[in-house]
Amino acid sequence: LPKTSNKSNGVSPLNCQKLGKAKLQFLHFQISQIVVHAPLVKVPTKRINFFTNRLFVFIKEDKKHMKIMRNFLGEGFHLSTSIIVSVGILFMSITSFFFLTKNKISRSKCLFHLYSKKHEYEDINNANGNGNESKSEIKGENKNENESKNIGKKKFLNGTIQKLKLCEIVKLTKTVKIFIFSYPYEYDNLGLGICKHIKFYGLNKKGKIEKRWNNKDDKERNLQKIFRSYTPIYIDEKNKHIHFIIRIYSPNNTYIDGGKMSIQLEKLHPNDNIDVVGPYGVLDYKGNNELTYLSKTYKIRKHLVMIAGGTGMTPFFRLINHLLLTEMPEKRDEPIYITFIYANRNEQEILLKPIFDEYDETFTNFKRVYSIDECLNSSERYLYDNIGFLNEELLKKYVMKYEKLNLDIKKKDTLILACGPPPMTSFVQSVIKEKLQMENFITL
Q: Which H or E run includes 361?
């Protein structure tokens, strides 16, 4: 029991000096019953009634201590009020957490619904833009005969530095976020063809160790600005919005500095601007099932196989959407069969999974294949086509024929595209070209 003041008018909870040993033990028992039988989770009214009943027993036993008990009862009410307030704050915090989490999930679902529908593409030839070749990459070219259609069209991406304004960031996974940017309404269109990408420019940060980044030689240390390339998954020409899926490489024990560009993007706030240049890209979709890679033209004849790792799916997403949902009268009786092989670390990292699942269920000419390094939920292993790294057996199974309909397709009628981490694309290339002896193969 707490110590009390020696003042004669002391109204502290218990004055141990004035209570006999027997009465002190009895009071201690009553208080212990209050503590044991009145947990915090009880309804406040019932808890207060319980306090009153217990104290009444003691007061009836010895009326001389009524004044002391009245003060104790008052402190009980104060304690009860404090508990009620604390529980209320905790309840509001938990409610707010679930509300915000639900809103984030709902926002992701809304975006997935938007992405899954037919995109309002710019004119293919208009979007390819006019660019000059560079040593490292080739900007979008336009060799279309109907170039006169583009006269008067003002394109945002014109090969010069422009500014995108951040509208919103939506969390997709622990390491991946959707960045939604806007460009000015004064432009008629973005000017970015399917499979094309944009260069984002940012300040060159110094590593924690001088002249090194992530404990390796920093080859960019003498540059004032750096760039990284990102491919949008959705372009909203009406609202002038561009949606990107970007992985954030945060600093950790292995990579002490993180990603030079992604950590800058993560710190952006709505209405912040970032410098961009485009269009860029060595792969260019020309329409009518034709792709150009560098100076060579490839025709998508019967089977298109796309092999992606992680965010390497972004160059393929708009192409998949276009081929599945855009009218192509000349190909109605002979559809293009699409096999999308998607590799990730685990099932939680499969980006836009609901959309690929929907496409697989809706279209007989689309087959999605999931390969994950490890399955976090052992009860769902059956949902994935491969547990472990990509292997020769898996590639042979889904590249040599359209497995969904068990259709054998000739090698010359199959085109394979690959984009992802260098170790993955190197392995895929060795299997496709050396083991399967297939020549129509492009690595991004």
A: helix 353-362
CA within 13 Å, CB half, 253: 0
Residue 217: count other Cβ atoms within 10 Å of its Cβ.
Answer: 8
Lowest mean pLDDT among 87-91, 124-128, 204-208, 349-353: 124-128
* 337 labeled binding residue: no
The percent of residues above 70 in pLDDT, for the chain, comes to: 68
47 is annotated as contributing to ligand binding: no
Write out the H or E segment, with its range, that includes residue 180. Answer: strand 176-182
Whether residue 424 is annotated as binding a ligand: the answer is no
Which domains are present in the chain?
96-119+156-281 (2.40.30.10), 282-443 (3.40.50.80)
Q: Which residues lie below 8 Å from residue 124, measured CB to CB, with a gap of 6+?
A: 193, 194, 285, 286, 287
The answer on whether 245 is annotated among ligand-binding residues is yes
* Tens digits of residue pLDDT in 384-400: 999 999 999 999 999 99
Query: Are the CB atoms for 192 and 278 separated by under 8 Å?
Result: yes
260 annotated ligand binder: yes
pLDDT band at 133 (very low <50, low <70, confident <90, very high): very low
Angle at CA of residue 92, ends 87 and 95, nearest 5°: 125
Tens digit of pLDDT for each residue in 48-74? 555 555 555 555 555 555 555 556 556
- 318 labeled binding residue: no
Nearest of 196, 410, 214, 391 to residue 286 by alpha carbon: 196
pLDDT of residue 134: 39
- Rounded distance between C-alpha atoms, residue 379 and residue 201, angstroms: 44
Q: Is 314 annotated as a binding residue?
A: yes
8 A C-beta contact, residue 147 and residue 155: no
Q: Give residue 90's pLDDT band: very low, low, confident or very high (50, 70, 90).
A: confident
pLDDT value of residue 295: 87
Burial string for 108-124 (b: 16+ CB within 10 Å, else e) reads beebeeebbeebebbeb
pTM, full prediction: 0.74
Please give the pLDDT value at position 307. 99
